[in-house]
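Figure 2 data, in text form.
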Amino acid sequence: MSFKIGDDSEGLIPRFVTELLQGLVRNEEGEEGFDSYTMKLSVVEMHKERVRDLLSNCDDLKICHDKNTFCFSVHNVSEVEMRSLVEAMTQILAAYCARVTHGTAMNDHSS
């Protein structure tokens, strides 16, 4: 997997991170935006009913459900701070490579 910044074929995540960072830069140039920010990335994978942290390769994660807000959260997941698209995509590509992938018989017959 690879990406080129500004490429029409780049996926949702690179486009989202680019737009987010451009909004943050606008504020630094005096335009309306955020006063201060910290951007952190966590990447988890659910595979065979187990939750894995793809940035630290940890599988001792716990999913918690808040009954009041109906929200789920993952405890013990690592967070990586980022300040640029290149930093973000480097971490995302590393996580992408750590995923569990297997071919199935369906791959030969699906459309």
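Caption note: The two ends are 22 Å apart (CA to CA).
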